[in-house]
Amino acid sequence: xxxxxxxxxxxxxxxxxxxxxxxxxxxxxxxxxxxxxxxxxxxxxxxxxxxxxxxxxxxxxxxxxxxxxxxxxxxxxxxxxxxxxxxxxxxxxxxxxxxxxxxxxxxxxxxxxxxxxxxxxxxxxxxxxxxxxxxxxxxxxxxxxxxxxxxxxxxxxxxxxxxxxxxxxxxxxxxxxxxxxxxxxxxxxxxxxxxxxxxxxxxxxxxxxxxxxxxxxxxxxxxxxxxxxxxxxxxxxxxxxxxxxxxxxxxxxxxxxxxxxxxxxxxxxxxxxxxxxxxxxxxxxxxxxxxxxxxxxxxxxxxxxxxxxxxxxxxxxxxxxxxxxxxxxxxxxxxxxxxxx
Length: 341
Hints:
There is one protein chain. The protein is α/β, with parallel strands linked by helices. Helix content is about 35%, strand content about 15%. The chain has helices spanning about 5-10, 45-55, 65-80, 95-105, 125-130, 150-160, 215-220, 230-240, 245-270, 290-300, 325-340, and strands spanning about 60-65, 85-90, 105-110, 115, 120, 135-140, 165-170, 190-195, 210, 275-280, 285-290, 305-310, 320. Strands 1-9-8-7-6-2-3 form a seven-stranded mixed beta sheet, with helices on both faces. Strand 10 (about 275-280) and strand 11 (about 285-290) form a beta hairpin. The chain is globular, with a radius of gyration of 22 Å. The mean pLDDT is about 95.
């Protein structure tokens, strides 16, 4: 299939621009961003900075509207409706299954195993993945916080070589950077990684993610991505957030969040209403409460929003708690001490 050729894809933005039916005048409040002009579909400056940050090459990147778009593009390119199968490992991020269902692909489940203080992949994962076009993994996993070993991913990618993709969602990898699967990419062309600027980088409102993969995979995804996926202000803000000074401030924030996660975990462990805790390695804590839905309702009444995970397989009465700023965590700890006492 030939991709749609946008005006910016056919020609750059130099010279007199009469090729895209744009207004010649910028709008009020433009601030010099030239918002009357369509943006570059894949800005070279942003791709170069992300490639540097992710220790890869620009040709291995496709910048998307958050990781959600990357997931959707992968399923639409590689899964024929009513024919292909997609494997997920619940409890996990809900968009993997939803994107597969929208495409008409069968969803195969290989549920995580509760090993006591952490969740593990099932021992027969490779057998369950056999015949699946895409295997979705997440490390650190949302909502359980567990890490998937690199050797497990490498073995699965080798087993799926020639038949399917192994997609590892690394949305939270900045909280455990030593666990990134980037080094595996050169040996496994069917391995795909997803990154986002929404979590550690604090750009959830900008909706900016990245697919990292073999250039052949990237070329296929580019054939169906929207002509202009990246708004000009989003790109500008992202570049500011990825300067060395900004990244230094981010590292300080990550250190604070790690310390706060430990403090919050300790406080939760002393609460009689909390039955079990999975602290994980990201910016959230998963707990099992005596009554999870009631904990979420009572916290909301106190002005604190938590996420009920009870609908996920194996997570009855479980609640995911995001680690906030110290003062926000103080409020939560004060609430927890009084709750169910």
